[in-house]
């Protein structure tokens, strides 16, 4: 099942224009999709860059600005110490801050649905992970 998901994720990344040598930024908590993204990048010879979910907005803005990744993979939220913590909201703030300082915005943000709650959305940039994988 994991390998099937990795094949589908690799196909989705390829449809988004990821090629050998491209960087894919992964901003996920410890979830299966993190492993799937790693395997998918390996299948495409893309470079998986980890953006820890513990990074602050300024740190995340700096890293995303430096990377210029074609695709960012994140989660809507995560469970930590019994509480739901935002993940995508932090990334959204970092991307907005990066744009304000002249950074190249991510072309696509794939969002893993972890929590049943509203999530901010940027049309044309944000896509659900599961929908992108279902297209293959």
How would you sum up this structure, described in words?
By secondary structure, the protein is α/β, with parallel strands linked by helices. It is 42% helix and 22% strand. It has helices at 2-15, 32-44, 57-67, 88-100, 129-134; strands spanning 23-27, 47-50, 71-75, 77-80, 83-86, 108-112, 126-128. The two termini are 15 Å apart. The relative contact order is 0.20. The mean pLDDT is 91.
Report how far apart the termini are: 15 Å
Order of helices and strands: HEHEHEEEHEEH
SS-derived structural category: alpha/beta
Number of E-state strands: 7
- Tell me, what's the shape? globular
Which CATH class applies here? Alpha Beta
Strand fraction equals 15-25%
What CATH architecture would you give?
3-Layer(aba) Sandwich
Main sheet: which strands, in order across?
Answer: 2-1-3-6-7
The CATH topology is given as Rossmann fold
Q: Report low-confidence residues grouped into runs of 5 or more.
A: none
Helix content: 40-55%
Can you count the helices? 5
Mean pLDDT across the residues is 91
Major sheet: size, sense and barrel closure? Answer: 5 strands, parallel
Domains, number = 1
Task: Report Rg.
Answer: 14 Å
């Amino acid at each position: 099942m994991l390998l099937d998901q990795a094949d589908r994720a690799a196909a989705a990344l390829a449809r988004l224009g990821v090629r050998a040598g491209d960087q894919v930024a992964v901003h996920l908590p410890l979830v299966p999709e993190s492993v799937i993204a790693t395997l998918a990048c390996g299948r495409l010879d893309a470079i998986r860059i980890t953006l820890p979910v513990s990074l602050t907005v300024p740190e995340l803005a700096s890293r995303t600005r430096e990377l210029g990744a074609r695709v960012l993979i994140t989660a809507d939220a995560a469970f930590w110490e019994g509480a739901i913590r935002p993940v995508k909201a932090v990334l959204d703030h970092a991307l907005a801050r990066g744009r304000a300082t002249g950074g190249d915005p991510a072309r696509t943000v794939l969002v893993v649905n972890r929590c049943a709650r509203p999530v901010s959305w940027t049309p044309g940039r944000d896509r659900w992970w599961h929908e992108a994988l279902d297209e293959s």
